[in-house]
Amino acid sequence: MREQSRERGKRHVETIPGAAEHKPLAEGSAVQPPKSRWLEPSRSLVALISALVALVVSIPTGVYTVWPALSPDPKEKVGATLETLAFDQNVTYQQYLARRPRHHEDGAALDRNGNVFYIRAMVEGFKREELRVRWFTYEATNSVRITRLGSTAALEEIFRPQAPVNTQIAQVWVPTPPNTGDYFVRFELYASGNVLLSFLDSPTFHVEQA
């Protein structure tokens, strides 16, 4: 009876599917965990995000390569200088406006005499910013600034550099002092925040009033 029970037990084990395929692990071998089906989609998502980030980063570079004027100012160096190239004497305000038809009037008398100074500004590090040139008239004999003979907001010349390093020339009209004497004009270049960048004294000129 016992032998028959053993035979039936052996036959029962052999009929279990896959029972004969299980083999004992070799000594020292590690059990390999099953691979997760979620790993493949996660890797694809990471690759997609990386590609999108690289694309976003490269877009500005490509745009600035095609249109360099759109690139921001690196501001590696910041500075400015002014230079008087020439000036015309005895130019009325009306004549000046004829030269500069788009210039804003400040209410000065059209028949008032003045001098037109050609001012060159060499600017570095102020791309697409607004720079203003203000002026003040001085007596040449004692370097005293004449009160009420300085630029108003309407007469301040504006420079708008379009490149990191930019040179522009402006015509600046300055009214003639009312008294006979020798004078010069001081031009001052300001950035936003009322920051003085540079200044320049014009050549001395003589005024003869009747």
Task: Describe this structure in a few short sentences.
With 210 residues, the chain is of the alpha+beta class. It is 23% helix and 37% strand.
Coarse shape: elongated
Radius of gyration: 42 Å
The string of secondary-structure elements, in order, is HHEHEEEEEEEE
Average pLDDT for all residues: 76
Strand content of the residues, in percent? 35-45%
Return residue spans where pLDDT drops below 50 for at least 5 consecutive residues: none
CATH class of the largest domain: Mainly Beta
CATH architecture of the largest domain: Sandwich
**Spatial separation of the terminal alpha carbons:** 151 Å
Q: Estimate nothing, just give the exact number of structural domains.
A: 2
CATH superfamily of the largest domain: Immunoglobulins
CATH topology of the largest domain: Immunoglobulin-like
> What class do helices, strands and sheet pairing give?
alpha+beta
Number of strands: 9
Helix content: 10-25%
* Main pleated-sheet profile: 6 strands, antiparallel
Question: What's the number of helices?
Answer: 3
